[in-house]
Amino acid sequence: MALNRRDLISATGLGAAVAVAAPFVSGAAAQSPSGQKKGAGGTVINGADVAAADNWRIFNGRKVGIITNPTGVLKNFRSIVDDMASQDVDVRAVFGPEHGFRGTALAGDSEETTVDPRTGIIVYDAYGAQAADLAAFYRDSGVDTVCFDIQDVGARFYTYIWTMWEAMQAASQTGAGFVVLDRPNPIGGQARGPVLQDGFQSGVGKLGIALQHGMTVGELARYFNAVHLPEAGLEPIRDLQVVEVQGWHREMTGPDNRASWVMPSPNMPTPETATVYPGTALFEATNMSEGRGTTRPFELVGAPYVDYRWAEAMNSKRLKGVEFREAYFAPTLSKNRGLVCGGAQVHILDADSVGAVELGTHMIVEAKRLYPEFDWRGDDGRWMDLLSGSARFKEQVNAGKSAETIIGAWQDELQQFIRDTREFLVYGGPRS
Questions:
Q1: What is the number of domains present in the chain?
Q2: In the chain, which end has fewer C-beta atoms inside a 10 angstrom radius, N or C?
């Protein structure tokens, strides 16, 4: 059973093949030392700005297709597509992911294939597209190089990385080059949570990576290329380039400048949302509202049957970096629409110390313990299986296991994932 995000919301020796693009910036914009302390000096420069500062020379002589959305902007907030088109880059097509190229679609939806009125470039609807579909798009538009530039938020079930995976398979099949304009992981470079197991692949998790993967999209691309393309019976992309972020390292969380945050999707309004998302998004697979249809999605969680006891129980756990406030809200869309929900708002006191997946686990365990009305969504809780990566999480919660026991159950597979991905990391700082 393979469900994508639309289904979930509406009812799931090859290193040499990778070339890492050299910085295109002057010494004044050189990368900060990888050993710098959090918050110390330096400016983070996204891969797109690095390439634009070199007048997009990386695409000279290429017929380019771009996978991007409203986060694919330069430091002046201009779309990379608009900028490339004005600089005579031969952009043949744009491929829009979930929410679309210009961001007009809500969760679980996309923009239809159309011609962009500003640039005259055809924009293909690539949300949910499989590798064969994308390969057909590449051939139809005549592209020989695919550029990926989307701000990820670091969670396995955030769908943009799976658009990239399908796009990379299509590039392998057609012989196209692949360029990633890299961006920081806004929740840092640490991996957390369970690893997706065989039999639980879906549109919100296609490969065996940790729930909070702790990698940038550029690092994931290197890993996918060297490991997962061969496992899928495909040749690694010989012309894979990652234009690196300058001045970022693994301990850094949040945008370099809060004013630079562009919503990656309609329900990801702030860096705080991204911080808790890998944990509180698990509530999508329950009958509790995860705050969609409020101004604080994924920070407000509750249901009509929840009362003050939940926030009190959560505060008694003294989880690092957060405090819980008893809260009441009425979602304007999605689950419990128009109903007054009791619950809690997760207030972030120290984003650097928040363990989001562990946070979500504790919240679900306490909700199940306190409220008989708590339940899973979908057939026998299948949605939770897809989000968590196996049936184990749901089964342990149902069995009344403690959060500590549930968290302990995924530690071996998580440590193996950390070991398996270490050689593909680009940016410095500790990895745990």
A1: 2
A2: C
Mean pLDDT (the chain, rounded): 89
- If asked whether residues 282 and 388 sit together in one domain, one would say yes
| pLDDT of 285 | 98
241 touches 181 (CB < 8 A)? no
Same domain, 80 and 214: yes
Query: Is 372 inside a domain boundary?
Result: yes
Q: Is residue 86 part of a domain?
A: yes
The domain containing residue 275 runs over which residues? Answer: 271-398
- Show the 3-state SS of the chain: CCCCHHHHHHCCCCHHHEEEECCCCCHHHCCCCCCCCCCCCCCCECHHHHHHHCCCHHHCCCCEEEEECCCCECCCCCEHHHHHHHCCCCEEEEEECCCCCCCCCCCCCCCCCEECCCCCCEEEECCCCCHHHHHHHHHHHCCCEEEEECCCCCECCCCHHHHHHHHHHHHHHHCCEEEEECCCCCCCCCCEEEECCCCCCECCECCCCEEECCCCHHHHHHHHHHHHHHHCCCCCCCCEEEECCECCCCCCCCCCCHHHCCCCCCCCCCHHHHHHHHHHHHHHHECCECCCCCCCECCEEEECCCCHHHHHHHHHCCCCCEEEEEEEECCCCCCCCCCCEEEEEEEECCHHHCCHHHHHHHHHHHHHHHCCCCCECCHHHHHHHHHHCCCHHHHHHHCCCCHHHHHHHCHHHHHHHHHHHHHHCCCCCCCC
Shared domain for 254 and 275, answered yes or no, is no
Q: Which residues of the chain have pLDDT under 50?
A: 1-41
* R_g (Cα) of the chain, nearest Å: 21
Q: Is residue 219 part of a domain?
A: yes
- Please indicate, yes or no, if residue 300 is contained in any of the structural domains: yes
Q: Quick one: 209 and 276 in the same domain?
A: no
Write out pLDDT tens, residues 295-327: 999 999 999 999 999 999 999 999 999 999 999
